[in-house]
Specification:
7 helices, about 15% strand, seven-stranded mixed beta sheet, alpha+beta, L-fuculose-1-phosphate Aldolase, 7 strands, about 210 residues
């Protein structure tokens, strides 16, 4: 069932690992179809070589149609985000080093340092800490992502959304690059960023 969708989810997860945006056991990826089916990476799967056989199918009602696979502990987090964001069809959650550094520090990443980062990410949200896989984390993450396309999850990692798997992945890669630039600027003692006028211009450009 849904072979193409499951292949694409697995490919995106492998790509995250290949780009050093997550660990072999960390993170998860999901895709929502136009008719409400959700495809998400299974729990305890090797992210370096995951294939479609390790991608779960959930019905529009949330029923696991692949009962031989254990759902990711973050499944409810994905479902909550989809519920509050009808425009979102893909979610990427991972643990990239620089974004996770800001997560441990409990600080959001400033996207207003380059035009690309601001355009791709908008305001980067910050999700309060809750234990992984908990209902509290699922609710807190959905609340932040209702108004953000990218967020830092305190003491945890990062999450991005998009209209496609490519867009969600792209935002995660841009978020990590932006986090690294933020870190580098701090080590340089530099506070350079876009001006208020430049931020407004980019934000308005994104609405065209």
């Amino acid at each position: 069932m849904f072979e193409l969708e499951r292949i694409r989810v697995a490919e995106t997860m492998r790509r995250l690992y290949d780009r050093r945006l997550t660990t072999v056991s960390g993170g998860n990826v999901s895709l929502r179809s136009a008719d409400g089916y959700v495809f998400i990476t299974a729990s305890q799967s090797d992210k370096s070589c995951i294939d479609m056989r390790k991608v779960i199918i959930l019905s529009p009602q949330g029923e696991n149609l692949t009962p031989n696979l254990k759902p990711s502990m973050e499944t409810q987090m994905h479902l909550n985000i989809y519920k509050c964001r009808p425009d979102v069809y893909a979610i990427v959650h991972s643990h990239p080093v620089y974004a996770s550094t800001f997560a441990v520090a409990g600080e959001a990443v400033d996207s207003a340092i380059t035009g690309e980062a601001r355009y791709m990410l908008g305001n980067v949200g910050l999700v309060d800490y809750h234990i992984m896989g908990s209902a509290e984390l699922a609710d807190a993450c959905a609340k932040v992502m209702s108004a953000s396309n990218a967020a830092i999850m305190a003491k945890h990692g990062a999450i991005t959304v998009g209209k496609s798997l490519f867009e969600a992945f792209d935002r995660m890669e841009v978020l990590e690059n932006t986090a690294q630039i933020n870190y580098n600027l701090r080590t340089m003692g530099c506070k350079a960023r876009l001006s208020d006028e430049e931020i407004i211009e980019i934000d308005n450009f994104g609405k065209q």
